Amino acid sequence: MSSEIPAIHITHAGKAYGATIALDDVSISVRPGTVHALLGENGAGKSTIVKVLSGLVSPDSGDIEIFGKAAQLWSPREAHRLGIQTAFQEMTLVRNLTVLDNMLIPEAPVGLSGMMSRGKARQSVAAHFHDMGLNDIHLDDEIGDLDLAVRQKIEIARAVYRKPRILLLDEPTSALSGPDVDWLGNVIRGLKRQGTTVVFISHRLREVRDFCDELTILRGGKHVASGNVADYEDADVVRMIAGRSLIHSFPPRAEQRHEIGREVLRADRVGTEGKLREASFSLREGEILGVAGLQGMGQLDLFLTAFGAMPLARGHFEVDGQTVAIASPKDAISARIGISLVPEERKTEGLFLRLSGKHNATVPIIERFTRFGLIDKDREDEAVSEAFSRVEVDHRALWSRADSFSGGNQQKIAIAKWLLTESHILMVYDPTRGIDVGTKNELYQLMRAYAEAGGAVVFYSTEIPELVHLADRVLVFYAGSVAAELAGAELTEENILGVALGSGSKASAA
Ligand SMILES: Nc1ncnc2c1ncn2[C@@H]1O[C@H](COP(=O)(O)OP(=O)(O)O)[C@@H](O)[C@H]1O
Ligand SMILES: [Mg+2]
């Protein structure tokens, strides 16, 4: 083993962004043909390693060898030439192009006589999707119309299509649930059989155990540990990631069940032209209403239509007992209605990445800080500071561009934004996807505090334990409608999963 040439060998890598040290003297070695987990809290430096190896970010110091040869990874093209392909955390598919076009950028496969014909390219991509078990993806669909999970699978399929010797997967499963995670497991095992080296980033230890041979842990830009996955207990890994003993915990429910107040939102047989057939429910002050369901079961449409981001085709909503028309997000966040949404894909929908954290937080309510068309900067600063301290976002975030924040901080800013609007109904769609344990706990506490202060929360999560521990009741979506409403002793992981998978055993409870 000592004579083996590593697939990736990074020595003493350093990278700073202004005052932020993203990588601090990091050395990592990845054995060829292995699957290597790269672990660490948000902001630990994982994506920076991935970007360095993909030729997107040049380190300030350090050396990189790929299969024993010194590499100058000064561009993605050079990384590709060395056989390195990446499925990025941000996902790099172009929204207004088709699946096929995306598969073919930045470079179409080249035949002996130059460019492949489009027909040939199409056949080749179709064959590749078939091999990868992705027959249900249509090559002519526009990326922007597809679910996040489908886009994530295409991002992965594209990297694999280019036949990498080294495949980098940056948090691919944070957008995937159950069966899709199994799908990825099969893809990784298949690549490993062919000798491909894989670097896999995930916050889920079960996946690390299932997919990976070795692991490396980073914390605050520093290398903490590397070794065989089998040699570490979960508790050790968590401790090394967090840098302190931290048991994943949910905030306790209030001693006495808090008063569930008056009805603030009612959905009466609402449906869309998309995936939502019909849903009815009532939401009360002080309540966290959980929503469960596999991808594409209609729950996303429910969130979008209640936020005015998708037209309602049937039924109606009532807010505070009045029937309301929610034709746009502007209607939704208006004082009259007061519904806000922290959407699934915060990177593109919740935040405008080039704006500073402060501006992101105030965009929806800019009028409140505006007098005679001028923004009252002091009032804005004060209100944003206060909202940021409630969500524990570093105050430097006030003037940094949103795209420089870690995912956890981006998510917290998305929530701060809604605290500022003083909405009383907060809808959150899978907010903890891809967020480290520490930040997750803060988000749980935020939702609890919001409900206990008299707000009402509608909370979709792909993490079933979150629903069991945080929600008062859970609506389980299946095939476009509410298949069951679970509460009390019936609110268990097994029951939620059973209904979500269509077993129907609890369907009568609705
Ligand atoms: N383009 C950038 N500009 C400024 N800071 C950045 C940039 N990219 C990353 N950072 C910072 O570098 C640190 C490491 O980030 P990253 O590698 O993305 O972490 P991880 O992927 O482990 O969550 C974080 O503090 C992050 O805010
Ligand atoms: Mg990252």
What would you say about this model in short?
By secondary structure, the chain is an alpha/beta fold. The chain has 17 helices and 24 strands. The chain folds into 3 domains: 235 residues, P-loop containing nucleotide triphosphate hydrolases (Rossmann fold, 3-Layer(aba) Sandwich), CATH 3.40.50.300; 127 residues, Rossmann fold; 74 residues, no CATH class.
Q: Which structural traits does this protein have?
A:
510 residues; alpha/beta; binds adenosine-5'-diphosphate; Rossmann fold; 3 domains; 6-stranded mixed β-sheet; 24 strands; binds magnesium ion; disordered C terminus; single chain; 17 helices; globular; 25% strand; 32% helix
- The Rg value, from CA coordinates, equals 24 Å
- Name the average pLDDT: 83
The coarse silhouette is globular
Lateral strand order in the biggest sheet: 6-9-10-3-11-12
CATH class membership of the largest domain: Alpha Beta
For the termini, the CA-CA separation is 59 Å
CATH architecture of the largest domain: 3-Layer(aba) Sandwich
Q: Helical element count?
A: 17
- What is the strand tally? 24
Low-confidence residue ranges: 368-373, 505-510
The proportion of residues in beta strands is: 15-25%
- Distinct small-molecule ligands in the complex: adenosine-5'-diphosphate, magnesium ion
Structural class per helix/strand content?
A: alpha/beta
What is the CATH superfamily label of the largest domain? P-loop containing nucleotide triphosphate hydrolases
Helix percent band: 25-40%
Whole-number count of domains: 3
Might you state the CATH topology name of the largest domain?
A: Rossmann fold
How can the largest sheet be summarized? 6 strands, mixed
